[in-house]
Design a protein that fits this description.
Order of helices and strands: EHEEHHEEEEHHHEEEEEH
Structural class: alpha+beta
Strand content: 25-35%
Number of helices: 7
Largest sheet: 7 strands, mixed
Strand order of the largest sheet: 1-2-3-7-6-5-4
Radius of gyration: 18 Å
Distance between the termini: 40 Å
Length: about 270
Amino acid sequence: MFIHVKECESTQSIALAELKSNLQASSVWVLADRMIKGRGRRGKTWECLEGNLFLSGAFRIPAELLTNGLTDKAAHWPFVSLLMAQALITALKENQGWNDRLFIKWPNDLWGYSLKGIAGKVGGILCELRANNMIVGLGLNIKSHPTDNHDYPTWDLEELLGRNCDKVQIAKSVSLEFEELFKTWLASPELTQKDLSKVLWTENMRGMRKATFTHNESDRELSAVGLTKDGALKVIYIDSGETFEVHDGEITLRSFKQSNISRVQGD
C-alpha cells in the first residue's frame, strides 16, 4: 500500500497506524509533501523544507522469523539501514538521479560532493524495530537544503545533479526496491549481508575513504577501510595502524577531505 498525503506531523506514525488497522497488509508506505515533526536519529530533528522527500514504510515481521532467531543471527537489525541505502541508490539510478559524486556515509546517510569538492549531507535514513513491526524512514533533500547547519554542510539532489528530480517517482522506486531487498534479507540475512556489504563498500561508499573520524571512547583519530560481512565499519587508528570494527554510536565524523571532482568521478 502506497499513500501520498499533502501534509502530516509524521509519516512514520501514519504508516504504523495504517499497518496496525489493516491486518491484510504486510507493508504500508507514506509519502508526504510537507511534514511538521521530522525526526532524525537519537532524537534529533529533521528540517522539512518544501519540495523535499519525506517517506516512511511500516512492515509486519512474521512472528516465526523473530522466534526462530533472526534477531540472534545478526547485529542484524541495524543492517536494515544499509538495505534502505541500497534501495535508495538503485532508485536514484533508475531515475537518472545518481552520479559518482554521491555516496553512502555509513551507516545511514546519503552524502555528496559539490562542484567545489566539498562533502555535504543530502539525505538520512531512520530505522526502528517496534515489537514485530519494522519502521523505515527516508528524508531526502530534493529541491532545497538547510543553510544554517553548523555541524556539517548540506546539499540538495537537484543542485548536485544540475537537473530536476521527480520525488514521487523516486519514492515509489525506493519502496519497491526496499521491499524486494527486505524479503530477501529476511529469508537469508547472513548471505544477503555478506554480498551487499561488499557491493556497498566497493561501489557506493567511495567517499568514505576521504573521511576521518573520532573514536568516542579514546578521542583518537580514525579512518575507514571497509565493511564487515554484517555491515560493521572497519577502521584503522591513524596514529598506530591498529584496525578494529565499530558499530553504531562508537565514532563521530570529524571531517571529509576536499576532493578534486575529476578524482571523485574516476576513483
